[in-house]
Amino acid sequence: MRRRRSLLTAALVAVTTAALASPAAPALAAGCSGTNDGDVAIGDNQTAESPIAISECASAPSATATVPVKIVHTYVGDLQVSLVAPDGSAYVLHNRSGGSADNIDQTYTVDLSGETSNGTWKLRVNDNAANDVGRIDTWSLNLGGSTPADDFSVAVSPASGSVAAGSAASATVQTQTTAGQAQTVQLTATGLPAGATASFSPASVTTGSGSTLSISTTTTVPSGTYPITVRAAGATTRTATYTLTVTGGTGPQIPDVDIAAVKAHLAQFGTIAAQNGGNRRSTSAGYRASVAYVKDKLTAAGYAVTEQPCTSGCTTGAGPNLIAEWPGGDANNVYMFGGHLDGVSAGPGINDNASGSAALLETALVLAQRTPSMVNKVRFAWWTDEEQGLNGSRFYVSQLPSTERAKIKTYHNFDMVGSTNGGYFINNITSAQSVHMKAYWDSLGLQPEENTEGRNRSDDASFTNAGIPASGYAMGASARKTTAQANKWGGTAGGAFDPCYHASCDTTANISDTHLNRAVDGIAYTVWKSAVGTGTPGADFSVSVSPASGSVAAGSSVQATVATRTVSGDPQTVQLSASGLPAGATASFSPASVTTGSASTLTISTTASVAAGTYPVTITAAGTASRTATYALTVTGGGGGSCTGTNPDDVAIPDAGAAVESTIAISGCSATPSSASVVTVRIVHPYVGDLTVALVAPDGSSYTLHNRSGGSADNIDRTFSVTVAGETANGTWKLRVQDSGPADVGTLDTWSLNLTP
Length: 757
Description:
By secondary structure, the chain is an alpha+beta fold. The protein has ten helices and 45 strands. The strands form nine sheets. The protein has an eight-stranded mixed beta sheet with strand order 20-21-23-22-24-27-25-26, sandwiched between helices. Strands 1-4-9-6-7 form a five-stranded mixed beta sheet, with no helix packed on it. Strands 2, 3, 5, 8 and 10 form a five-stranded antiparallel beta sheet that branches. Strand 41 (691-696) and strand 42 (702-707) form a beta hairpin. Helix 2 crosses helix 4 and helix 3 (285-301) runs parallel beside helix 4. The longest helix is centred in the middle third of the chain and has 21 residues, at 350-370. It is globular.
């Protein structure tokens, strides 16, 4: 995973951060409230935080949660005080008001109804001017909440079973009322291998009762282990996992990759670094030796291997990307598996990212050894120059013609998959492209989480930004493991997931065999599920829109071509529809249904009242499955007025220079701005700890969104909630960004404002 900062600067930042965060352990609170009365110093022009960990709170936070705060400070007009939720959302409590008054001793009321109760909450205090210091004396949090609605749980006993292909297995599904009243739930099962069926007796139960699950298999079911998801659907849906092992089947068996072989590759990468100046940075001899090692292994195994020089956008002297394809499979359905091969200059880079590189290499070699029947195309990639800004993968994607991009159905990324204090994280965990990876970890009972720390910080971002679905595994970098995560996964609460992140100690000793083993077996599971078949693939298709965007004056219409293509099996009839249109716009298709392989004309008509703006319109083609494409509709000159706006124009952020601004003009908004208005910000910058970001209202009032937090993390890509209820909606709003530290520049990429979410 990348970070752009000199080691000396990073060390100074780390020391400063540690000094400010000395009372780091959260005050633990069982229930829906808690107090932290440990003093935390507020340095001059510094940021301080005090945490409270909430656990065992059974209800959602209230719209009138309370936060009593006592801060000792000689000039409260310098201070910004925010409540930070477990997901990182910040709620401003005090924003540099009060002038020369001293001390804050006040109870604030906050609408937290959209948050999750349990996790670590923080009180963050920013001192924004010189000559005064203070301390957080004490603060409390009372989430309030309401009586939980009817709820239930579901479990399967036994949780796993083995069956010979052609026979049946059974288990008991037990439900339990956990809140409110008992309810009737419908039972279903998903994740079954081809040739297996599931039934329940009875198919619906009242919570508190049980049912018998029977899974029947045919002799053609592939041998292997399958995580079956049992769903109980009532007022809400709850799930449990039954792990089914099939033996003696005639289909291909998903392999268990030998962890010893993966570690042998890691040892080789360590030796390469030691022989080449101690690192494998993209511009080094160590990186080129790593490329040669991987290339030799793959070529000998029968792969078509290509070195791709990065001719633009990469660091001067950076080595090549390495791309390898296995023969066979539908070339129009490509599933890519990749990770960066380069490291930082501080050390050999074994967890970051020889771990992902070695796991991919051994999976590729096992695929070659098994030579299974391929349904879809598998392509492996090892990227250069990731640590300097995702440059190698971005170059690869930029060189792909649109037809080749469309062939890539999913890119899977693997970055830091052996962290010694690791967690189990999946990029875009709820998406379709993550189903197989999540299913495998679910089968081990790992309860994986979304990879929030790694969002937009590894090579999957290059594919996502190009419209290619992406996912991946990670075990965590410098972020710290929460108490809840330690309780779930083991390890040390409060410690970094990888204590040697970007450090000289990232050697072969900095690897968790358990995490690495679970990652490589999940990679193999995903490869086999995505591309290895037992026979003729089922019918499937794709849909695309050309052009992918268009502009229309309000009151007029615009057209595009919707093309479908049969990617496997027989052609089928699909029904076309559109969603996401602005009010006053309609869409029609001619014809409204097509046989895959054919096209239709999309016409979007607008009225004069449609508000100006850009709207992502989703085109859906529904047949045996649903496939979608996106058309970006821009409406100009609309008279409808709007309480929202977007400015996509790039604004350069100079190094340690004056603040820059980007404007959005709101007109025709008849509503009052909300107490939870939304500001979505995308800033590309290699060191967000240098940045201050503020929303400026038409009357000049400033609302701080980001104040030099985040340290050496790169890029801001998040949505802020801000209270602007006292402001006038119409007028020019500004996003103001200033870089206050040396050695880095960046770009304000885009931002949006929604005053009435």
